[in-house]
Amino acid sequence: MQQENYYIKNPIVKAAMRILSWILLFLGAFSMAQAVMIFVNEVNLGQVSIPVVIVFLFLTPFMLLAAWFAAFGVHKTVQGQNGGSSLVLAYAMLILASVDNLVYIPIHYGADTATSFFILGGIELVAVVLLFLYFQGMGAKVMALFASVMLVLSFGLELTDALRYTSEVGLDLYVIYNLVKKVMNELFAVISILFVAGLEANFIKKVK
C-alpha cells in the first residue's frame, strides 16, 4: 500500500482549499458543541434513545475528527509537507460517520422517507470508500472523480432538503444542528472534488 503525498501549485486552488478547510473545522467544533448541548437536554428530559446515542455520541465526534484531519491535511499539503496521511484519516472518519448515518436513517425516518435517504446514504458511503482508497494510491483517478461528483450531488440534495425544512419550521437548536451537519457534508464533497480535479488538471501534484 503506497502512501500518497501532494503539493498544491495553483494559488487560487490553494487559497480556496485553505478557506474551505478552516470553515469545515469551525463548523465541526460548532456542531460538536451543539451535540453536547442537545444530548444533555435529552438526558435531562429522560428522552435518551438509540437515535440520540448514535447521532450525538458517535456520528458527530466522527465528523469533528474528519474535519480536523481534513483541515490539518490541507494545511500541510499547502506547505508542501506530508498531508496525505491526514487526508486518509479524514476519509476513514467519514466512513465511520457514513456507517452511523445508515444505521440512524431507518430508526429515525418513516418508511417512505427512509428509503430515499438510505439510497443516498449508501451512495455516499461507496463514494467515500472509493476516495479513501484513492488517497492511499489504490484507486483509479476516473473512479475518484466520479465518487467526488456523486458526493457533491448527493450531499447537495440533502442540504437542499435541510434548507427547505428549515424554511418551513424555523430555527431551533435541533434544526441548526442538522443544517450545520449538511453544510459540513457538502464542504467535504467540494474539497474532495477540488482535490481530485486539481490532480487531473495538474493544479495539484503528487510528491514523493
Please report the total strand number as a whole number. 2
Rg measurement, Å = 17 Å
Poorly predicted runs are none
Mean pLDDT: 85
Q: Could you say how many structural domains there are in total?
A: 1
Main β sheet profile = 2 strands, antiparallel
Helix content: over 70%
What's the arrangement of strands in the largest beta sheet?
1-2
H and E string:
EHHHHHHE
> What fraction of the residues are assigned to beta strands by DSSP?
under 5%
Task: Tally the helices.
Answer: 6
Quick overview:
This protein is mainly alpha-helical and 208 residues long. Helix content is 81%, strand content 4%.
What does this structure look like?
- The protein is mainly alpha-helical.
- It has one domain.
- Helix content is 81%, strand content 4%.
- The model has no long low-confidence stretch (mean pLDDT 85).
Comma- or semicolon-separated keywords:
208 residues; 4% strand; mainly alpha; two-stranded antiparallel sheet; 2 strands
Secondary structure: elements and pairs:
Elements lengths: L4 E4 L2 H34 L5 H29 L5 H25 L2 H24 L6 H29 L3 H28 L3 E4 L1
Antiparallel strand pairs: 1-2
Helix pairs in contact: 1-2, 1-6, 2-3, 3-4, 4-5, 5-6
